[in-house]
Structure formats: structure tokens, C-alpha cells
Amino acid sequence: MMIKTRFAPSPTGWLHIGGVRTALYSWLYAKKNNGKFFLRIDDTDTTRSTEEYKISIISALNQLGLNHDDEITYQSKRFEHYIDKIQYLLDNDLAYYDEVEVNEKTKDTDLSIQYNNQLNKEGYVIRFRNQKESSIKINDSVHGEITFDPKVFFDVVILRSNGVPTYNLTSVVDDIDMGITHLIRGDDHLSNLPVQVNLFRAFNAVVPAFSHLPMIHGTDGKRLSKRHGAVDINYFLNEGYRVDAILNYLAKTGWSHGDQEIFSIDELIELFSLDRITKSAAAFDIEKLNWLNQHYIKNDSIENIAEQILPFLSSLELPNVPKNDKYLEDILLLGIEREYSMKNIANSITYFYENEIEYDMSIIEKFDKEQTIKILRDIIAKLFIVDFNDKPSISACVKATCKDLSLKFKDVGPLIRFSTTGRLNAPSIDDLCFVLGKKRVVERISRFLELYQ
User: Fold this and answer.
1) What is the four-CA torsion angle of 365, 366, 367, 370, rounded to 10 degrees?
2) Overall domain count for the chain
């Protein structure tokens, strides 16, 4: 039997980080078993589903490398098929019409037909005749054996009064048609399980194996939501979090393999198993994700990092940012471990490209103005007459200024950094000046002196 899994997001919002983990686990399990991973867009909610959300979800999954097999299934294109399946249930006395009860809660509901079909009957819904004789036992790979008491079963609506089929019906029909063997999804779907199992059996279909994943919580123990910060996967992709770091982190959020923290994609595929998924809710810790992203950045080649950062630099509309940039590689060699995302790294090195540095003079208020001018005049005179062919010659100039003016490096270094970058925190003076080059360094210190005096 070929293993078949699926991810079925609803395009009524952006792709949540928890949804990405569900997709990842489904994808890993299929890949590990040489099976197939399908993508289905559950867009039966025609009033809330949008094309923008659909495109965003598909794009994010593609960027993450969670590629699906075969064509994408769109539920909105299968309404006629669902109506035929409901007709089958009606014909076999497994469904029935039920008059809509109008009360205080429903009196303002719009019952007008949204989807015209042969089963529409004004003022009526169609309910599934849910069997209530036998309990349902499911062996869930995460939660173990779960028993559902038939006393809590009820006849769910499978066709709304507006003519639109409901989630329980469409999901089961599609899972049957797609041949899904293993349903991996959030444990918020546990409440749907009894009726869906009964629907599978009503259609004489094989019931898939189930794995219901615990929810991802914030560090405060509450269900992860916007109040905890960013939960949309596009935020992390747009901020320059690496795909390998995101997938590594999410894989570890609810699954483990001993004490191992770092996994390549190939290792995840090889090692992943459903029985290693924890029953308890996992916490989404942004600091841990940042650390992991830093790890992947620090352990990649400078050439790869430069290639990944270029789009973020280009978006800042800086001057002098070429497509293939040895200069950028030299900049990154000065230290890329200071920041945890590509976007942050790009923002931190803008001064290497700017034609004119913007200076916030309040930053150097603690420095004596007269001495500052004397220091910078002295260092610019020394730097002007040396070639920037090596770093020692630059260091020698700084040491000579300190000696000639009877000052310590802490009195001189910060002023050179500030006049050349507009910041006090920057790489070492010799590294900074060597990469910037003689022309930029001399011009920047000279301009700062003009503005400062």
C-alpha cells in the first residue's frame, strides 16, 4: 500500500506557523515511506476564502520546499461531486432533510441560496444520519486508543440551507477520493473524528490512520496567537529566516530524536516517525528559532549568505549594490553572527553602501568637541598618505595618532567608527577601513568634520 498524506489549509487567512508544522510532518512521513503528499485547498467557505490567501499559502509552501504531488485539489471546484455524494446518502437513508429552526440566534442569518443545486429545499438543511448504536474506537498514533461514546453523537448538517456542503462531508469525500492513508492534523479536529469515521463507513471506505498533533502554545502556555507576536509564516520568510532553520525548528516543536538539535532535511526524512510525536503541547520560542537561524547562517559559506542577502539589500534601494558582489562577501566576513536574520544583517550593513552617512550628533555628545576635531584631523592626515593594501598599515596610523596625542584607543577608535559609519558599534577599525577603502574613509571623515565643526 502506498502511503498518502495531505495538507488541507483553508484560505480564510494567512498560513499559520502551526499549519506549517502539520504540513511538514505530513510531507516528512510521505517522503520517508516513498509515498505521496497532496495539497488540498479547503475553500468551500466562499464568503471568507480569498484568492490572495490561496496564492500566499501555496507560495509559502513552495518557498519552504514542501512540494506536493499531482495537481492541487480545490474544493470550490468539486461542489457538484459533493452533491452527488449527498444524494447517495439520501438514497440509502443515511441522510435526511431537516427544517431550519429560526430562533434568536439564527433569525438574522442569511439563508438565501449561495450554491444552486438539485438538493436545495428552501428553509431546510440536510443532516447525516449519524449511527448512535456503537462506540467508536480509534488508535491514534499520538494519543493512543481513543473511545467515543455514542451518547455524544448527533446528526450533523452536511448541506447548509444556502446549498453549500459542510466541512465534515467535503473533507471525508476528498480524503476517500485522494486515497489518503494517514491523516495528520491538529488535535482541534478530534471533536470531528466520530462523525467523520461514520461518514467513511457510510461510503464503505477504508478509514485512514490518524495522528492528531497537539497545539503549539506560546511560552505563556496559551494557544499560539497574534498576541504572542508573529504567527504567519510569511513574516518569517520576509524577515529572512532560513528555510532550513524554520523546518528544523518546527520539526523539533513536538517531535524529537534523542538529544539531537540540528537536522538536515535529509536527516529529518530518514529519522522522522509518527510514534515520536509528543502528546503534550509544544511552546513556540522565538529566541530558540533565532538561535537556530544564527547557527545556520554562521555555518554556511559566505558566498551563499551573500546570495541570500542580496534581495534584502536591493529592497533597501541603496546605491552601489551590484548583482555579483565580492565587496559584500568582504563585508560579511567581518562578522555575520551579530544578527539572526537576513533582513537584520542587510539593515546592519547599509553604511557600507551609502554615499552620504547620516549622523546623529547626540550619540557623541560625551566626547569633547575640540579633542574630537583634533583626533580626526590627525588620523585623516595619516590615513591620506598610506595605501590601504593591508590592515597593519591602517592599525599603525591609529596607534600613531594615539601616541602623538597622548591618548588611549578608547578615546580615538569610537570617533573613527562614528565618522565613517554613523555608529559607535562597528567592526574593528582596521577591518572597517580596509573593506571601505581609502577613498570612502577619507571622504567620510572629511565630510563629518565639515558638518561637525
Assistant:
1) 60
2) 3
- The pTM of the full predicted model, rounded to 2 decimals, is 0.91
In a domain, 203, yes or no: no
Write out the chain in H/E/C secondary structure: CCCEEEECCCCCCCCEHHHHHHHHHHHHHHHHCCCEEEEEECCCCCCCCCHHHHHHHHHHHHHCCCCCCCCCEEHHHCHHHHHHHHHHHHHCCCEEEEECCCCCCCCCCCCCCCCCCCCCCCCEEEEECCCCCCCEEEEECCCEEEEECHHHCCCCEEECCCCCECHHHHHHHHHHHHCCCEEEEEHHHHHHHHHHHHHHHHCCCCCCEEEEECCEECCCCCECCHHHCCCEHHHHHHCCCCHHHHHHHHHHCCECCCCCCCCCHHHHHHHCCHHHECCCCEECCHHHHHHHHHHHHHCCCHHHHHHHHHHHHHHCCCCCCCCCCHHHHHHHCCCCCCCCCHHHHHHHCHHHCCCCCCCCHHHHCCCCHHHHHHHHHHHHHHHHCCCCCCHHHHHHHHHHHHHHCCCCHHHHHHHHHHHHHCCCCCCCHHHHHHHHCHHHHHHHHHHHHHHHC
Q: Which of 208, 202, 228 is nearest to 217 (CA)?
A: 228
Name residue 139's beta-bridge partners: 145
Taking the C-alpha atoms of residue 80 and residue 165, their distance in angstroms, rounded to an integer, is 10
- Residues β-bridged to residue 185: 212
By C-alpha distance, which of 408, 402, 293, 406 is closest to 341?
293
Q: Are 387 and 393 in contact (CB under 8 A)?
A: yes
- Amino acid, res. 304: N
Whether residue 235 lies inside any domain: the answer is yes
The CATH number covering residue 290 comes to 3.40.50.620
**CB distance 148 to 172 below 8 Å:** no
Whether residues 37 and 66 fall in one domain = yes
Q: Looking at the DSSP assignment, which residues form a beta bridge with residue 38?
A: 6
pLDDT value at position 109? 65
Q: For the segment 89-128, what is each residue's pLDDT rounded down to a tens digit?
A: 999 999 999 998 777 666 556 667 888 999 999 889 999 9
CB atoms within 10 A of CB 406: 7
Is there a domain that residue 152 lies in?
Answer: no
Q: Which three cell numbers stand for residue 210?
A: 490518524
Cβ–Cβ under 8 Å, residues 350 and 343: no
Q: What is the pLDDT of residues 412-450, one digit of tens each?
A: 999 999 999 999 988 899 999 999 999 999 999 999 999
Domain span at residue 439?
A: 361-452
